[in-house]
Amino acid sequence: MKLSSLVSQINPSYTLEMTAKAAKLRSEGIEVIDFGVGEPDFNTPSHIIEAAYKAMVNGHTKYTAGSGSIELKKSIQTFLVKSKNVKSIELDNIIVSSGAKQSLSIACQALFDKEDEVIIFSPFWVSFPEFVKIAGAKPVIISTDIDNNFEPLLQDVEKAISIKTKGMIINSPGNPTGAVWSKETFEALLEIAKKNNITVISDETYDQLVFDGEFFPAEVINKNIGANILTVKSFSKTYAMTGWRVGFAYGEMSIIKAMAKIQGQTTSCPNSISQKAAIAALDSDQSFVESMKKEFLKRRNAMNRGLSSIEHIKICVPGGAFYYFVDLSHYYNKTDKNGKIIKDSFDLSNYILDEARVVTVAGDAFGAKNYIRLSFATNEDIINKGINRIKKSLSELK
Ligand SMILES: Cc1ncc(COP(=O)(O)O)c(C=O)c1O
Predict the structure, then answer these.
(1) Which residues line ligand 1 (CB under 6 A)?
(2) In sequence order, which residues have a C-beta less than 8 Å from that of residue 20 and are 6 or more positions away?
(3) Could you tell me which CATH number the domain at 47-283 has?
(4) Which of 101, 148, 206, 359 has the fewest CB atoms found within 10 Å of its own CB?
(5) CB neighbours of 164 closer than 8 A, spacing ≥ 6?
(6) Minimal CA–CA distance to 119: which of 135, 106, 132, 100?
(7) What are the sequence ranges of the domains in the chain?
(8) pLDDT means per 10 residues in the chain (398 residues)?
(9) pTM score
């Protein structure tokens, strides 16, 4: 069977591959510590689950409007104004999707054409370049450095812009780095975008998981700049609802309308029950989010203590999300006890899995070859145990 050329251009999700590998080892009875996870290990709060149950019992099991129910859009509208993400917003400027992922993907399809170039900053979330490729456009990667909190240098951005540049995807707090970009960096990027007529897609999936300082939504910073921004947010990480598949985007009406057209022809509408659950998540008190964040902060600090005790590691304390992205390139070109040379981040991640029985994700998957991603979405005891095992396995490389 001859498949489309698109399929051969798209990379499979490496993070999902590592999750599958860990599951396989567990099914063989091997105890594995999972630092590969990309989701909170908390249960969805019970009031959200109850709202979903009630929705089913009361017959909310039918298609909703393609771009999301009016009721949920009203809750999002109230939430965005109350949380000072926007001063005011119309319902027609909002689309609800099956997760932030769908909003991001259809945004790229709505905005970009074949010859267009889209700026993405590495380390990047694995799906960004694939969204752009699925749209037929070309990802242009700009590297950032751990010594600069993974924030881009403006001269690199200016240099990467051509007449073909149509979009820029930003993600703060970021996956895989957890970096929260400064207000100044945001301002400068938005000014460049405005000057060059570039649409900015701001992925704010982790906006409620910021530990240090204040998070500024792109649209807030944009108030006096006026760049064209599409903001994408998610229920997944904020309310431990990854499996419910619900997220949303807001921005200029013409973009939202175009996205709704694509969504309507691909998934009809987001899940009706999840939409009812999402209303409960937004309308109720937010104490769950605060307590989850407190717990993540404790875990971040535990992972920081452990990692700081490893020799020849370079770390940057993540200001948000639940990932450490650590430079372990010192261990490349070293040899394991079987004589195998560790050549790159894939080799190192596999070595750590085989020797330490700890799942990590290779930096190459995120476009950054010197790094390994470690998630701290697991309890402190496991964090301590996992880091000790990694430390021991690294010390055995010669
Ligand atoms: C940066 C980033 N954006 C978007 C998503 C997808 O979120 P959702 O579950 O809402 O599709 C993820 C999930 O890992 C992510 O890390």
Answers:
(1) 38, 99-101, 125, 171, 175, 203, 205, 234, 236, 242, 247
(2) none
(3) 3.40.640.10
(4) 148
(5) 115, 116, 117, 138
(6) 132
(7) 5-43+288-395, 47-283
(8) 89 79 88 92 97 98 97 98 95 98 98 96 96 97 97 98 98 97 96 98 98 91 96 98 98 98 96 98 96 97 98 97 98 96 96 94 96 97 98 97
(9) 0.96
